[in-house]
Amino acid sequence: MTTIPEYANLTALPDIWAIAAKKFPDILALHDPHSKPEVKLTFAQLYQQIKQFASGLQALGVTPDDKISLIADNSPRWFIADQGSMLAGAANAVRSAQADKNELAYILRDSDSSTLIVENQKTLDKLRSFCDEIPLQLIILLSDETPKTDDSIKTLNYSQLMEQGANNTLQPITKEDDDLATLIYTSGTTGQPKGAMLSHGNLLHQVKNLDAIIQPKAGDIVLSILPSWHSYERSAEYFLLSQGCTLTYTNIRNFKTDLKKFKPHHMVGVPRLWDSLYEGIQKQLRDQSPTQQKIVQFFFNLSQTFILSRRIANNMSLEHFDASGTERFIARLKASLLAPLHSLGDKLVYNKIREGLGGNFETLVSGGGSLAKHLDDFYEIINVPVLVGYGLTETSPVTNARTHSHNLRGSSGQPIPKTEIKIVDLDTGEPLSQGKKGVVLIRGPQVMQGYYKKPEATAKAINSEGWFNSGDLGWITPMNDLVITGRAKDTIVLSNGENIEPQPIEDACVRSAYIDQMMLVGQDQKALGALIVPNLDALQTWGKNQQLNLTFPPEDASREAIVNSDLYGKPVQDLFKQELNREVKNRPGYRADDQIKAFELILEPFSVENGMMTQTLKIKRPVVTERYQGMIDGMFES
After folding, report:
1. Residue 425 DSSP SS3
2. Does a structural domain hold residue 259?
3. Rg of the chain over all Cα atoms, to the nearest angstrom
């Protein structure tokens, strides 16, 4: 049951804001400290602006069931446009203004949009050549720039639209649970994007049930960094704002400063974000004196033993479900003996790390990919609660999540209310028993209506009984937790027929201080290989400790310059061999086929900007493979 009973019977998502405005009128809802001027909106002001935006759209001819393309990035105006377009009765198709123009043109065409809302004139200029091919009737800039007068399509800026809204009476539109609210196009690590049709009921399921995971208080600070248009951040924002939280916008450049400045209570993010925090902390620790480093390492090693013993004692260790009563008793005894030293470590070391993160964190929620074991362990040691969730764009997105009371590390947690999970055989589709690995199927009120105008793709994804095929591989624990082991289509098949799931091995290897990013390769080869983006700062520190004067080329150096640099000298190459060998072998479930026999170092990181990562920071494996195909082929020539 949601903590706000008034939401229980809602059938339209935007109806939340009238209730929130009454319950939390003077609490700050949206805060953008980095915009010029700074933006602060209370819940009462936010609702008023959403209504005004909706009224302006209606005055300009937007009718119920129209489609609106919203091409913009995180800002209070994005949220107002999103909820204003729904309140006007329309459904929106959303995407980042930074996305490739051909991808945006595809979304404009495919979504049948009659209105286009864009971040600014620059974004419109990028799309302008496509606009005449699409029956657009209206364009809105979310900026206050003066629209170009020679535009053949009626174009207004944000202030002009809001002025229209102020002079028009909003016409209430009734929406039901199964009415379309939004089209979110799958980011597509492969193939053409598909528009996942999410209804008001799909999104309201998240608002009404995510309190099973997290119970925020009115006025709690939430730091927002993920793309607002993405289903994960979007549903989180709807839920957290519905509970009276203050959403504060940040970005990669200001993230670490904003942690200390705004001291957030909650945050949702992706593994790469938590990894960047971890790396920053590790760098600070490496800069300490050798004596301080030894003290810190002593406490971390001790606490590592402590948390494992505590997990085993409480039957919360994935690798020890079959532990005997005697083993659990010994683990409980060991945890009791180590607890005072762990507490001392908390006082001397971990508390200072938490203060560097703002000091107020009650919950970090991680999703959008697997969280590496060393990160899960690290945040448990320093007592920053990390809850891992699972879901997809097509499931609005949350289906499973760990909770404070049941935080089984390594898992994605139990299903949230009204959600069913089933594991089936990859080849036959037959249900598998508990503990067996197969494809994850999902059924519940959050499962999409289908892919827009793609009945065949919809039928392939959702069967006649309503089960959605996630394409993920996983298994169910005795306590009904879901453990994700990889993507069915990411599987690398070696020439000996062995199937390798790359993600767990990659997660293990990036634990090395010297590996910043990594992607496994080796399809149809005798053994695995890897493309590695090294951590040059950590390598420099290592070189100094080894009394080596290492020099590395810049990121844009030629391949020849990289190969002829110290990166390919014997000391560094031997270091990477040792690191890969150790981390792979230390991974639970290690097999001989998991060994990485070859690797190449690349200096350009995988990123959204260079097209090698999705907006949620997942590596686009086919894109990376195509880009480095020659290098990959060279790994296996011998």
Report:
1. coil
2. yes
3. 25
